[in-house]
Amino acid sequence: MPPENEYTETTAVILDENSQLTLRELCIACALSAEQIMALMEEGVIEPHGSTDPLRFSGICVQRVRRVVRLERDLGVNHAGAALALELLEEIEQLRARIRRLERR
């Protein structure tokens, strides 16, 4: 336990679809190597903005990558299986949101 006069400073950053991250920043945010991120790109889990160098990713990519990592860890599926599960989970979320909107009418 740290002494009473010591404290830890925490900084939070809110990421959304308008946020821009480099490959390095995405690697740091997700605690993955560039090779692992590139493998997820090949599976279609994430896509960079345009074809610029350096690669740029939206803040939503952090959420998608972290979710895929959890799916792989918890379910023991490979990248392709996790990508499919992610796609289905997002579709379920969209359908539930649509149902909620329709029920409010």
From TrEMBL:
Q: Which top-rank group of organisms is this from? A: Bacteria
Q: What is this protein called?
A: Chaperone modulatory protein CbpM
Q: Name the source organism.
A: Microbulbifer hydrolyticus
